[in-house]
Specification:
Four copies of one chain form a homotetramer. Chain A has eleven helices and 18 strands. By secondary structure, chain A is of the alpha+beta class.
Chain lengths: ~375, ~375, ~375, ~375
């Protein structure tokens, strides 16, 4: 794959950093926009104190000269104001649902060294990388949005909402939700969870408009666009399900209700009136909006902890509690957007090649015309 | 990742082949067992004529001497008895839901060249590779099974079924279903679909027992076990959703209902009484059974075709019909097992290293003891 | 990297096979040309009996319909007429210089299982894959040639020979040598080695004409064109040195004698009059011919074997002797061409993207014009 | 491959950074030792002013808690005191031998954006990463050293020098040379080059002691240890040739003079008395010292510049001159050590697996014993 990134840093460490390799030259790297995405990740009702205290701001480590990418790896640095890793205590009672136990046994180390990395704090870097991908995609009029469709018991249907609807309606919602009434109920559900000293998960949808036909491939499983997106999304903390289009409902309906009929119009070429496939057929984008639905389990750090075992004594004890959020689905949806943006950019570069924006634009326009003339 | 495989071949081509790179030396490569898995893939009510005509049998291309793997790449060859690719007609009316349209535009070629590769026929090779992985995993007492839990409107609940239950009950079912009554209903649903000249999808569950704590990793998203499994499964034809454990239900429940409490007993170490997480926490196996649920959409080739466009004339026409199955969820579940087996083997080798079975056994036993003593 | 291939098969096994993933659609796959390259690999004075007995011919396993690539993985199958692996005896006295000892210890198996795979017989597949790459490169007027410049004590200087000279003069030489007199001496040197029951290595040069400016990259070490070529060439049996342009002589001269001055002419753009850099600067092709020099050590199977140890008894004994060639530098040069062709194709696809020949041509022409106008 | 690293940063940018992914847990990350290696890189007669002004010191970005690695990606940050990238002028006359021309055309940008990344300044990060690898290898008693064997016309023979000799003798040499007289001549050669306003390259040798039998593999070209080392070394600025053991001389001698006979002694197992192969046979380490020889071309920035072309006017002009070193072979040798250390660690982890030092030690000891008993 043309793009490649690594992140490092711990939840309470001094720094978080990321390096992305493979970004072409000539892209305007708008740091303000990138930091806006980081701010979006920190929003949402149900967050703990930390998100309110510190505003994430990244600095550029390299790969950008005079505001433009140079083709060299681009680095981001985020300084944790809340830096105190040396003072954080060791923990002994792994939290069910967290990496604590497996990470400690696998790496032969204490729980602290595991949770500091397993923490969702790392996703700040994934958002920064994804924000860069968004800037790239914007050049090609590809846009990524998301909205929250479930928080615990409260859910909304979204099939009938157009891309424009979702975009407009979710933008001003604290819960990144397209329905004000549902938003209120979601907040109430979170309040309930706070009261019960429990936590809640939910679901969000990511949509991408403007994707050309033919990203990904049917020829080999490692190239399939849906597989790549599924891996990246499932590889995010708390995600337990990834669905495209009708998703799990695809298993219930008849074939005649599961696929998107094909139409053609001179000015816009082949197109669809439905998006049951989520914009992917045979592992390739089909020109419709990408539509992925992601389910997040509830936060595993509970104020009323579950049963666990003290790893020193092997005696049953309640799991550890560390300061935590209660529900983070809106933040999850922002991270989901970032992940999807990155994967789409990767598949885009794979198809169109090119080392400078000028070259990629030329390649892209040529292909669009070829498709129109096919 | 230590393992790597590629397949080639077309649905009606002369051959299908696969080469797997990274299999350690000293594994007994039991071709009978491998061919049994291929036979399982061809079963299930609702298949078209082809599955009944030809029995897939692979031959070994290399990497095995005197019945044992040598560490060299292992190749499989399957000769298609139904070889007639040169006589197959070109098609012009892409099937909604299939790779036809996107593949034809992307690769600037006719639909025939696309569908011959996009066809699920290729999964015969994934099953062969997966069968090899099963032989490997068996050496370490890791076992992979599956069962069908939905065909169209007919579904069963399976949370309470133990691994042993599922294994015993699904083994003799034509539908790979653990419930005889549900099986009958599934068959009836398929008969309905046949009558309507329509098709049906469904859902299956893959479970893996015997997985040690600590496959995959929390440290970097590309190493997460659930992400890797999700990619591989979503990269299979027709799959539209992948879920772990509670899956989409994780978004509905409270944290206290979503996680698996941790227990300890001297003889078996840390263990769980529930499997809501599907055996993966923080991107790592947690010692419980892996439990993945996969949703397949209905077959996109319909006897009563959907609206499409003739790519030559650009006029609306009905989509093409090619001889096809009606419902393939049981076959899908066998392929799903193969895919999961392969990914688990890959993660296993990544963790334990080693070039010969002897070395891997030693490394593995050492780790198990280390975990017991932690 | 866009391309990816795996081979399997043993020296005396029934089959050799290869699968290449990432070849774009629309390439005419001329099997006659591919088999010609395989025949070239079998030529050269100093070969053992085997090369004379069997003529390698590959068959296509998939990825080609009606003579054209489809974007799907392309497989090659070669049936070994000399199939007798089950009858080959186990060996116990590892040959110095061969994989025998390390391979046997690493993989915990006998020497036979090692040498069957370590054998240069596997390079037949690398030649087939490289021949496919040549067909691709030819579409873009990129041509790969080679010539032998040393066999043991006999060497020729080649700096002053143009690409056209080398091509014309080496084509008809049994030794793939540009100088008839040197060729005779080389043959005499081989005769001497035969008489001494010894073996000889040598050196060859691979040149590539028509490479555009800008394959590879300076931005990250894994993308450097020279590094990729070095890896692929050093990863071939018997290779002990890889040099670009002046190569080891670069360490001896002054900077003013080591670099290629830059010139410009309207009709051909930037160009060089010398090729001291071997066509690579900063990890990128610079528009001059690629020029790589490869040194092969002598064959390690000697008729008058070296000291070794019997692995069963641990007693000193002479190494095993298996039927073998005496000197294979011309064959090596053909394999070297194939390897270079493959790597150049890979770097080409990485830069220009595209899924069909039509698209790649368009992208390529656009870039050439951009460079001309820069 | 288990390890993976990316670097970012520009020569005159504010930062250089690197992130390494795949380092196991439990390694003591001694920052003092890492910074010592960075200091070694800055030494050597013939350096420009910059190396004397600023002392490189890295800080850790993540992956280390309480001085120990945690299995998470490890990041390094180096702040450039000499930060002035915004004030650096654009350049128009590409330097022959440098990435300037190809990088500018490929990425459609000015020369400044190219040279800032192509600069050898980036190797500071490769040294930091390599220093980490050395710390790991030291745990397993694997040691990497180097010495300079040529600067321009002055060369020394080194075949007869033992590892211990080289280590002791080169340690205190400003030129990292094992011979005091040769060192003086090398310095004189550099003085000559300074006087001529020219530059000089040279050669160095990297040796690794303590490598177990069986790193790398013969089974597939991408796994070959020599290929991996060759790629990494050739992917360093200025390198034009990479040789193992006899290297180019392998092409001149008879087979009986080119290979290393095999011996056995109860206490040390199989061993060699010579190292003509450079410690690699069949793509695997054979238990002898690794011995790689690297040739560096002279610095391409000349005080008496070569012919070039002004890219704005297309008129012939002399190439640009930027402040530069005259000869950097000793620094090159330190970087070469780092690169080799990294690749050996990667191959080591690939073979032995494991996530903690404890586990890797156990796996390693088990293998050593298995080899002893084979």
């Amino acid at each position: 794959m043309p793009l490649n990134f690594v992140t490092c840093g711990e939840s309470h460490g001094k720094y978080l950093a990321a390096i992305v390799e493979g970004v072409p030259a000539g892209l305007e790297v708008d740091l303000v926009r990138i930091n806006q995405e980081l701010a979006r990740r920190q929003q949402g009702y149900g967050r703990g104190a930390r998100q309110k205290i510190e505003k994430d701001q990244v600095e550029i480590l390299g790969g950008v000269i005079a505001g433009k990418s140079t083709g060299a790896p681009i680095g981001f640095l985020l300084v944790n104001k809340d830096y105190k890793i040396e003072k954080m205590p060791e923990l002994f009672r792994p939290r069910p649902g967290h990496a604590d136990l497996a990470g400690s046994l696998k790496y032969d180390q204490g729980i602290r060294a595991v949770l500091e990395r397993a923490s969702a704090r790392e996703t700040a870097m994934r958002v920064a990388v994804g924000a860069l991908a968004r800037l790239f995609l914007k050049e090609f009029e590809i846009e990524v949005i998301s909205h929250v469709i479930r928080v615990g018991p409260v859910s909304v249907r979204a099939e009938h909402l157009s891309f424009a609807d979702v975009k407009k309606r979710a933008a001003h919602s604290e819960m990144n939700c397209a329905y004000p009434e549902a938003e209120k109920e979601m907040i109430r559900a979170i309040d309930n969870a706070i009261e019960k000293r429990d936590s809640l998960g939910g679901q969000y949808e990511v949509r991408v408009a403007g994707v050309p036909i033919g990203l990904g491939s049917h020829v080999h499983w490692t190239r399939k666009l849906d597989g790549r997106l599924a891996r990246a999304l499932m590889g995010k903390q708390s995600v337990k399900a990834v669905e495209f289009g009708l998703g799990t409902r695809s298993g219930e309906v008849y074939g005649s209700e599961a696929h998107d009929e094909i139409f053609y119009a001179k000015e816009k070429g082949y197109y669809r009136k439905t998006d049951r496939s989520g914009g992917v057929e045979g592992g390739m984008s089909n020109g419709a909006d990408l539509l992925v639905r992601v389910t997040m389990k509830p936060i595993s750090t509970l104020r009323r902890p579950l049963a666990s075992v003290n790893m020193k004594t092997k005696k049953p004890e309640k799991a550890e509690y560390e300061r935590s959020d209660i529900s983070v689905v809106p933040a999850g949806s922002v991270i989901g957007e970032a992940i999807v943006a990155y994967e789409v950019m990767d598949a885009f570069l794979e198809k169109f090649g090119g080392d400078s924006l000028k070259e990629i634009h030329r390649n892209y326009e040529g292909y669009l015309q070829q498709v129109r003339e096919s």
